[in-house]
Amino acid sequence: MTRYSPERKEAVLKKLLPPHSLTVSEVASREGISVGSLYNWRSQARAEGKPVPGPNKTSDEWSGEAKFAVVVETAVLSEAELSQYCREKGLYPDQVKGWKQDCLEGFNSNPERQRETAKQSRADKKQIRQLEKELSRKEKALAEAAALLVLRKKLKAFYGEGSRGRLTPHCERQALIVLIKEAVTAGSRLASACQETEICLRTYRRWVKADGVVLEDQRPLATRPEPQNKLSKVEVQTILDVANAPEYASLPPSQIVPKLADKGLYHGSESSFYRVLRVHDQVHHRGRSRVVAKRAAPVSYVTTGPNQVWSWDITYCPSKVRGFYYYLYLIEDIYSRKIVGWEVHERESGSLAAELLQRTVLREQCFKSPLVLHSDNGAPMKSVTLKAKMEELCITGSHSRPSVSNDNPYSESLFRTLKYSPQWPSQGFKDLQTIRDWVQRFAAWYNNEHCHSRIGFVTPEQRHRGDDKALLAQRKTVYEKARQRNPLRWSGEVRNWQHIKEVSLNPGKPERAEAKAA
After folding, report:
1. Which of helix, strand or coil describes residue 326?
2. Does residue 33 sit in helix, strand or coil?
């Protein structure tokens, strides 16, 4: 790496000054010095306060630092020395004196500073306009959000628990228009206020005339023809008289209509009876039975492989002592129907269930995998100990609906298979070790020998390992070859040996799923 003396650097930098006024690239090509080195030398000289040119060529366009450095260097020079200095630097003595005067006046009249000040002023004004515009936008958005929140609270009190989707009376129309106008006055846009009230902007414009008058809905005032099959007043009264007759007073329409038909009488269908009674407020729950409660749909899970959804439960196993039972804890994989974990104890406990769950997870090697554990609402299933263990193992809990016995069908079906097994001791088990040995033999048979009808008549262990795909494909090939040998024995397709890809826990009804999709 070539090193240059300070004198050499100063001589090279002088070529950038008048009268030469060469560019950096020209000096670099003539002197054989890299452009980067020249820029570095110029920066160092400028940092030391020496007069060096900036990107401009003329001395009047030098930076303030360079001019100030010239004034400092010439402050102690005589007239002759100043004249010599100016010739070396490509300056005029009057220029140096002018710069000195500018320094004394603080460069207040410096055109370059004025240009910089004007440029900065324009940039500041532009930024101020942008900030004011952004502030105005945010203030409008904040005002609109506050107005919509107030409107939402008023609408909640206005609608109650119901919602729109019905004919709006004229009084409600007027109240809605007042609420919308209040929100617009508070800063909301008209379209946003209409959307909050669940009416479209076109509906608002149809309701309100140009002078602000709210129009009334004309549909209730329309004259519509009566349907030809409408019951007459005499028929309606006949239905009421029959339903309230002493012999039918305690019977529902579903029993009144058949009894009338036995007598050769027909006054209307069952639905007509209900409709007439409902219009006259005579359809209410009677008797000591409870009103049928409308239950929410159960949570549904779909599994496409093993160790995704498990179902577990506890069942009573009788002993030879009357009134004393053993408790079988059993965990089943709903995809493969495999018994992945079981244990028998003399009591029900959430801590014992937590120990079984941990052993099962470690045996199946599904720690911290997305696993769902479904059960009913028994005390061990909802114990704090089991919940803590499930959180530790990253398992999602799922429970049946209260007082609904068929939300855990896989465990119930497995318990039925277990207790209706031919080997089940009807007289009870002798002791704890006896029942544990029996359940161990049953689990081995169920997992490795029992061909389950709901998974294509393969064993749960085969499906759990994924061997059922090849086995079912082989069965289909056998049936296809048999049909080719004797096609007359098959009137349609061969038996369905397709692999079951998905298994659902508490799937929704088809009509419910279609309604949701629509």
Report:
1. strand
2. coil
CATH fold of 301-441: Nucleotidyltransferase; domain 5 (3.30.420)
Query: What b/e readout covers 30-59, taking b as 16+ CB neighbours within 10 angstroms?
Result: ebebeeebbeebbeebbeeebbbbeeeeeb
Alpha-carbon distance of 432 to 344, in angstroms, equals 8
- Beta-bridged to residue 326, according to DSSP, are 317
Give the span between the Cα atoms of 374 and 406, in whole angstroms. Answer: 12
* pTM exceeds 0.70 for this model: no
Both structure tokens of 414 = 């497995």
- The beta-carbon contacts of 367-370 under 8 Å, at least 24 apart in sequence, are 367/393, 367/394, 368/393, 368/394, 369/307, 369/394, 370/308, 370/396
Amino acid at 103: C
Contact 372, 396 (CB under 8 A): yes
Q: Angle 253-262/270-279 helices, nearest 10 degrees?
A: 130
**Which residue ranges make up each domain of the chain?**
6-109, 126-220, 243-279, 301-441
Closest CA to 90 of 26, 21, 43, 27: 21
pLDDT tens-digit readout, 36-65: 787 787 777 776 656 665 554 567 767 777
